[in-house]
Amino acid sequence: MALLERPSGPERAKDLAKRISDGRHNIFAQHGSAAQARLFEPSIQGLRGLAALSVLLVHLYDMPLTAGFLPQVPSWFDAIIGTFGRGVEVFFMISGYLIPASLVRHQLVSKFFLDRCLRILPVFVILHLALFVVGPLVGYKFFKGIDALEYVKIFLANLFFLPDILNLPLGQQNAWTLTYEWIFYLWFAAAFYFATRSRLVTALLVVAGVVTVLWFPISAYFLIGFALRAIDLRIGARGISGLLLSVACLALMYMLLEYVHPFLGLLPGLILFSTVLNPASSFAQLMSKATPQFVGKISYSLYLVHPFALYPLQVIGARLVSQGYSPWMVWPMFVVVGLLTSVIASTITYELIEVRLRNAIAALLGTHDRKIAAEVQGAAAGDMRDHARS
Fold first, then answer.
1. pLDDT tens digits, residue range 300-314?
2. What is the pTM of this model?
3. Which stretches within the chain are classed as H helix?
């Protein structure tokens, strides 16, 4: 079945289910069928939550610093907190692992990108519109003193994830990572499609990928998940020593990324992620507990929403300090209230936008494809049950 062709005929659901359950059609399923690749892995969800929480924590430190109400802290504390922003590379590892399986599962490039748009765009676009409506009214950052043409340029550049490429101001504080995500989606989809169609194009895509990694070293972290999808390495780091190994790898990866060079963090990142993929490892079991699972569930909303939730508190904190209140009182209040506000706002965003609005958009796109998907899912589940009984 060609990747860009729409399945046709009465056997399309059965045929697609067979392809999902048969890993021989794609190198990324050599160590397990694509149906198995669809199975939910709680530890990955928990790791996603840890990454989002890591970025939130560094902003609970940086935003008071920027606003002038961060009290004097030891240099070692500053150095440690400074590494927490490297949670974005954890997201890259997760995408590198999940996206190949997602493309195999969807079979059609159009379906794959529709799924990605439904996943990413609703929250992003609503926050984007809110920023560009409210921002000029409150004098937020780059809106001060810009004319209508500049406004439109910045609006469109941010809408299409291009502000860094066009050297224009970034709107949403964390949205720059989505540029990397979309480039990876486009690159991998093209490489996957042309791998069996044109050696020349595939070679050019590989060269382009290598150049991108050398030019933007943090993009190498997609390769960790990509590699572990291909080789299925799962390290069983059990007990206290295993947990310490995973935590040490996470800390070392963060430190090397922040203070040395991204390439040096690849090995500890690989070891960390391989322990996450092993359900028997202590770190995977920790990530599978209720709290990491909840944070993982709302992680995308938490990642994008928390700067919006923290901004009013940042303004209030700066005013309180200017009126004579101690930073040692204001900053802890900012952290506690900011953490609670971010989680509450992200939970609401998740329920209203990621779940309800996304489902409504999917419903508007029609029920036919969902019916076929349900048939395929049922057939794949039957294959898994048969395999379990055998």
1. 999 999 999 999 999
2. 0.82
3. 12-21, 34-38, 42-67, 75-81, 87-106, 109-138, 148-159, 176-194, 199-215, 221-231, 239-259, 266-276, 282-287, 290-297, 299-322, 327-349, 358-364, 368-389
